[in-house]
Design brief:
With 799 residues, the chain is an alpha/beta fold. It has five domains: 216 residues, Alpha-Beta Complex (Spore Coat Polysaccharide Biosynthesis Protein SpsA, Chain A); 129 residues, 3 Solenoid (UDP N-Acetylglucosamine Acyltransferase, domain 1), CATH 2.160.10.10; 104 residues, Alpha-D-Glucose-1,6-Bisphosphate, Chain A, domain 3; 179 residues, Alpha-D-Glucose-1,6-Bisphosphate, subunit A, domain 3 (Alpha-D-Glucose-1,6-Bisphosphate, Chain A, domain 3); 82 residues, TATA-Binding Protein. Helices cover 29% and strands 27% of the residues. It is built from 20 helices and 54 strands. The strands form eleven sheets. Strands 14-15-18-21-24-27-30-33 form an eight-stranded mixed β-sheet, with helices on one face. Strands 5-4-1-6-11-8-12 form a seven-stranded mixed β-sheet, with helices on both faces. The protein has a seven-stranded parallel β-sheet with strand order 16-19-22-25-28-31-34, with no helix packed on it. A hairpin with a 2-residue loop joins strand 2 and strand 3.
């Protein structure tokens, strides 16, 4: 006997899950619904199967192929236009040369098909409808039969006033081939609305067989979810792949589950998924293959398809997520919410109950979504953040993303130019660098590969090699962040106008490839780290004296330490290595115990640093910034240098006293650096350069680090961060500007209010839904009071 699986359904009521997937391919516990139907047919000896397809047909073909992998033989019949249920089967008439069974590919059942066929044969029926009883028959064709099973009444999708039975048509039919001769090919024709009513009116043998067992049409989102819950409860007799580790808890192969997970069955976890420590898997959770659920996240009655990333501290309650979705930390998805594929839910975002989000949407941080999101995009489509393009490695920043970004970047800013590429030491950063390299070459960019270098070296190399720009891949493994840093021909971060050009090219995919004869060349140059070191020494070197060398305790990543070691040795310093990345708390104790002159902590990018004085006092933040600038003033007299508007105001007086000048700028690195763009090095963004300047200052003055700081006049800064939704930031700034009337203010970056004895800066963060509030006062109480006052103003302005 042969069968026809009807697999042309769009599944409109299942959207957004079916926006890019035909309804029969919607997964049930990790497998497409249609795969269970093939299992059922095979179980009852039916292996010659026609499949009628119309909506996204290649998705079905690509998955099932010719059926060999499923031990059946599949024959596909594609409709160029919808033909209705009967017309679709008529399209396969050449295959149907014997009695055949018609079954839907988007319903789940465990009916005994052998018994249904036997009933058909014994009754002498031309067409037999397989029936079942349901509590709410309005969505189906209601059928009434006599004692022998002959159909006496038939009504498709009645109202409650028309319901005469709870016995309904399941869409499973056993037909004699001659019934297809009743209507012509290539016309729209329906079983329930036309063929069966006609057979009934003509008193042809039309029978109904009431089957026992489970049947569920996954026609809407609620039923789709309930069907899988029924499978977990064992109501449907189907094969669930995976090992049953606990009663009704099924786990696929290669699942990584931390010991601290809290389980509540029933549940299903697909192969290759990762569940981290502290995750809570509540009842009726279905997690497909390749998902990652990070620490502290809690799921209950939630369905995840494949390859989703649920970050730390997410709360998912009754949500349904398609594939390749990223939910960033502290998100909350409520009951009945449905998220389409390739969406990104920003940190601290809330999706309210029954909200549906269509595929490829970006939900901004701290957003609260109260209605379904179909058109447009809630993100600003901004690739660039304050320090470049950044995201979670191999989740947001992938080799595929790197390739597309590199193509857009090269075609927009660097076509026909030479561009340096470099990366940090991590293997994944090197992988991304190779993707960027290939993409750049494909659009005609000449690539100079610097290898593994620090960002200050990468910036230095662009100027040294007179390149048109540079791309550096920095992976901060501790923070789990990967960043693409983009430099212009001066080695400065590219400006906003250039960023917009790259973004537009990226989103619009508006870039052309070079011809094969015009591909970009590739060169390697690993000499730039040594050249950079020589340049730092040229600015910071001092003559050795008869006194003992400076003793410096260093805590740094191995790659950074190797360069620091070379620098300090050439600056006549004795270096003591404090190994391990978790030793920062031990640094003050080691400095005092070893009677060292200084403790130095450098981050893995060679830019961020902190110090410890010979007395064990930590020096970081604003105090370190002042020391960096002061040491620069001593070594680079008559120089103008940029300083962020939030920096302490005593910088001006320190600069004046040493013949320098400070120019206030925006907070961005480019704004600060471009004031002194002729300098290859900058103390705020180069930890090794700053270290050399400070040691040079100590040598010149003969003072200890603690004594140097004692010469700096006291200043008091207080900083705070205030959460503010993205859509409220503009309103807050507008209302705060009203308060500027009659006040002395600066508008270099944010709003800076001047008060007697101090100032306060309100600065909306460009990357996060927050305001930064920075205040300086002539005493600490004033700085704290100003921050408190303006916090109150901001909170009131949000109302």
């Amino acid at each position: 006997m042969k069968a026809v699986i009807m697999a042309g359904g769009k599944g409109t009521r299942l959207r957004p899950l079916t926006c890019h997937l035909p309804k029969p391919m919607v997964p049930l516990l990790g497998r497409p619904c249609m795969e269970y139907i093939i299992d059922l047919l095979k179980k009852h000896g039916i292996t010659e199967i026609a499949v009628t397809i119309q909506y996204l047909p290649d998705v079905i073909r690509d998955y099932f192929g010719d059926g060999t992998d499923f031990s059946v033989k599949l024959h596909y019949f594609e409709e160029s236009a919808p033909l209705g249920t009967a017309g679709s089967v008529k399209n396969a008439q050449s295959f149907l040369d014997e009695r055949f069974l018609v079954i839907s590919g988007d319903a789940l059942t465990d009916f005994d098909l052998t018994e249904a066929v036997r009933f058909h044969e014994e009754s002498g029926s031309h067409a037999t409808l397989v029936l079942t009883q349901v509590p709410e028959p309005l969505q189906y064709g209601v059928v009434m039969t006599d004692e022998g099973g002959r159909v006496t009444r038939f009504l498709e999708k009645p109202g409650w006033g028309e319901v005469f039975s709870d016995t309904v048509n399941t869409g499973i039919y056993i037909l004699e081939p001659h019934v297809l001769n009743r209507f012509d090919a290539d016309i729209e024709y329906d079983f329930s609305n036309q063929l069966f009513p006609e057979l009934l009116a003509e008193e042809q043998p039309l029978y109904g067989y009431v089957a026992e067992g489970y049947w569920s049409d996954i026609g809407n989102l609620q039923q789709y979810r309930q069907t899988q819950f029924d499978m977990l409860d064992g109501l449907a007799k189907v094969q669930i792949r995976g090992e049953e580790l606990a009663p009704r808890v099924f786990v696929g192969g290669n699942v990584s589950a931390a010991p601290g997970i809290k389980w509540t069955g029933p549940a299903y976890i697909g192969e290759d998924s990762q569940l981290e420590d502290g995750v809570e898997i509540g009842e009726y959770c279905i997690i497909g293959r390749g998902n990652r659920v990070a620490r502290g996240s809690s799921l209950e009655r939630t369905i995840l398809w494949d390859h989703n990333h649920i970050a730390e501290q997410n709360e998912l309650r009754g949500a349904t997520l398609a594939s390749r979705i990223t939910c960033l930390e502290h998100s909350r998805l409520s009951d009945g919410s449905v998220i389409g594929s390739h969406c990104e839910i920003g940190p601290k975002a809330t999706v309210e109950p029954n909200v549906k989000i269509w595929p490829k949407k970006h939900i901004r941080e701290s957003s609260r979504l109260t209605s379904s999101f179909i058109w447009g995009d809630l993100s600003s489509k901004s690739l660039f953040k304050a320090n470049g393009v950044s995201g979670k490695p191999n989740i947001e920043i992938t080799p595929e993303f790197a390739s597309r970004f590199g193509t857009a970047y090269g075609a927009t800013l660097a076509k026909g130019k030479a561009v340096t590429v470099s990366s940090s030491h991590h293997e994944f950063a090197k992988v991304l660098k190779r993707s960027l390299t290939a993409a750049l070459q494909s659009v005609g960019v000449q690539v100079i590969d610097l290898g593994v270098v620090l960002p200050p070296v990468a910036r230095f190399a662009v100027r040294q090699l007179q390149a048109g720009g540079g791309l550096h891949v920095q992976l901060h493994s501790d923070a789990g962040i990967c960043t693409f840093e983009c430099y212009d021909h001066q080695g400065l971060p590219i400006g906003k106008a250039a960023e917009r050009k790259v973004e537009n090219s990226y989103w619009q995919e508006d870039y052309g490839r070079a011809s094969l004869s015009a591909l970009g060349a590739y060169y390697e140059d690993d000499s730039l780290t040594e050249l950079y070191l020589r340049s730092v020494l040229a600015c910071t070197a001092f003559e050795s004296s008869s006194a003992r060398p400076f003793r410096v305790v260093v805590s740094a990543h191995p790659e950074v330490f190797s360069l620091v070691k070379l620098l300090l040795e050439r600056l006549h310093s004795e270096l003591i290595h404090l190994p391990g990345e978790a030793q920062q708390d031990q640094l003050p104790g080691c400095v005092t115990a070893l009677q060292a002159d200084m403790g130095l902590r450098l981050d893995d990018d060679g830019r961020r640093m902190s110090l410890v004085s010979e007395r064990g006092m930590r020096i970081d933040g604003d105090q370190l910034m002042v020391l960096q600038y002061l040491s620069f003033f001593h070594s680079f007299k008559q120089t103008v240098i940029g300083a962020p508007v939030s920096a302490p105001h005593l910088l001006e007086s320190l600069a004046d006293g040493l013949g320098c000048r400070v120019q206030r700028t925006k907070e961005s690195a480019r704004s600060i650096m471009e004031v002194s763009a002729e300098l290859l090095l900058h103390p705020l963004f180069d930890g090794l350069f700053a270290t050399g300047l400070i040691l040079q200052n100590m040598h010149r003055s003969g003072l200890t680090l603690h004594s140097l700081l004692e010469l700096v006049p006291s200043f008091y800064l207080h900083r705070d961060r205030i959460e503010c939704p993205w859509d409220a930031k503009g309103k807050v700034m507008r209302r705060m500007m009203r308060q500027t009337q009659g006040r002395e203010v600066e508008l270099v970056d944010g709003i800076k209010f001047h008060h007697d004895g101090g100032w306060v800066l309100l600065l909306p963060d460009s990357d996060e839904p927050t305001f930064n509030v920075i205040a300086q006062g002539d005493r600490p109480e004033l700085a704290e009071a100003l921050v408190s006052e303006y916090r109150h103003h901001i909170l009131n302005s949000m109302q």
